[in-house]
Amino acid sequence: MKKVTVRVPATSANLGSAFDCAGIAFELYNIFSFEKQESGLSFEGFDPIFANKNNLAYIGYQKTCEVIGISSSVKITVESVEIPVSRGLGSSASLIVAGVVAANHLHGSPLPKKELLRICNDIEGHPDNVAPALIGSFCVSLVAEGIPVTARYAVSDAIHFTVVYPDFEVQTKDARAVLPKTVERSDAIFNLSRTALMQHAFTQGHFFLLKHVTKDKLHEPYRKKLFRNIDEIEAAAYACGATTFIISGAGSACLCLSEKPIAEELGTAIAPLENHWIAKALTIDKDGGTVIAEA
After folding, report:
1. pTM, whole model, 2 decimals?
2. Residue 52 sits in a domain of what CATH number?
3. Could you tell me which of 143, 137, 171, 142 has the C-alpha nearest to residue 157?
4. Radius of gyration (C-alpha) of the chain in whole angstroms
5. Residues 127, 214: one domain?
C-alpha cells in the first residue's frame, strides 16, 4: 500500500453553551489523498500559499509519522473540497484529521483512535472540532492531564440541521479576541446547567431542551458584533421554524435546529439580504475521518 484517500466531515463546535467542549459532524466533506514518496514533500491542488510545511494536513501526517517512528515523505493531493474555509465548519480540523488518519493507515494502523485524537488535539489545541471530525456524530470532550477524552453520542433523527453562511470570513483569532477575560458567576452557572443536559437533548430529540441547552452567555453575545446583518438572518430562521439559532464554532456560519426541514424556505427568505447568505440542509456524519480508497 502506497497511497490512501481520506474523507473527513465538516464539524460545528460549541453548539451554544458547550464552549470549546462539544462538536458535531456533518455529511459535508473534504477529501485528500496521501502518497508515500522516497523523499521530500509535494502538493497538488492546493493554493500555493498553503503548499508548504505549515500545511495542516502535512503537520498531521508528519506528527503521526514522528510518533510511529518513520519517514514523513509524502505527496498530498486535494481531491474534493466541500467545507467552506474560515466559516466555523471545521476546515482546519479536516486537514489535521486527514493527515493523521492517512499516516496511521499507510503504515499499518499501529496507533489506536485515542492516540490519533491526542495527536489531533496537540495540533489543534482543543478537541471540540477534531473529535467529531475523527470519530463522527456528536462528541463531548475534555482534556485531563494533557490527554483528550471524548464521549460519542448518537443524534436523534427527529432533529433537522440547517447551516447558513455568508460571503465573509471570521478568523478564529478575532473571534477569541473579543471575549472578556473574566465572566460573571451567574453566566458560568447558566452555561454549566445547559451543557449538563445537552447530551440528553440531542440524543432524545427533546426540542424544548434543545431550545434552551444551546443558549449561551460566554461567547455568542460578544462574537455577534463580528457578524454583518446577523440579526436579520436570525429573525428569518425563527420565522421559518427554527427551534434554535447558534453560531457555528467561531463563525461566520450559523446553525439552525428545527423539527421540520427549513433550508429551502430559509434560503429563499435570506437570498435578498446583504452578504450573500446561503442556507444548506445537513445530515449527521456517523463515521468521522475515513479511508475511502487505497492503492
Report:
1. 0.93
2. 3.30.230.10
3. 137
4. 19
5. no
**What Cα–Cα distance (Å) separates residue 247 from each residue in 13, 80, 196, 236, 260?**
9, 25, 19, 15, 20
How far apart are the C-alpha atoms of 147 and 151, rounded to whole Å? 13
* pLDDT per residue as tens digits for the range 76-116: 999 999 999 888 899 999 999 999 999 999 999 999 999 99
Residue with cell 449527521: 284
Q: Do both 166 and 178 map to the same domain? A: yes
Residue 44, beta-bridge partner list: 77
Q: For 67-80, write each residue's pLDDT tens digit.
A: 999 888 999 999 99
Total residues found in the chain within this entry: 295
Is residue 236 classed as helix, strand or coil in its secondary structure? helix
Which H/E stretch holds residue 256?
A: strand 254-258
Residue-range definition of the domain harbouring residue 100: 3-153+285-294
Do 140 and 23 lie in a common domain? yes
Q: CATH number, domain at 216? A: 3.30.70.890
In DSSP notation, 259-278 reads: SS--HHHHHHHHTTSTT--E
